[in-house]
Amino acid sequence: MSVGKAKQLGVIRERRGAVTVEYLLLVTLVGIGVLVGLAAVRNALVQELDDVAAAISAIV
Questions:
Q1: pTM value?
Q2: Which residues contact 4 (CB under 8 A, 6 or more apart)?
Q3: Alpha-carbon distance 2 to 8, whole Å?
Q4: CA end-to-end span of the chain, whole Å?
Q5: Where are the alpha helices (DSSP H) in 1-60?
């Protein structure tokens, strides 16, 4: 294998590593966003159900 070819393969490996790290960061950020979003939906749903329970209790 020539020196030029070896250097070219090294650059390709570095790029693959950089792309892998970028995808890992992207997936991590999306995962955190999904968790925060689900927690917000859960809290809103619990609050709404509390309101419904209070309304039913006021009727009865």
A1: 0.64
A2: none
A3: 10
A4: 85
A5: 3-59
Q: Which residues of 23-59 are buried (b: 16+ CB within 10 A; e: fewer)?
A: eeeeeeeeeeeeeeeeeeeeeeeeeeeeeeeeeeeee
| Tokens 């927690």 found at | 39
User: pLDDT tens for residues 15-55?
Assistant: 777 888 999 999 999 999 999 999 999 999 999 999 999 99
Tokens of 58: 């006021």
Residue 18's pLDDT is what? 81
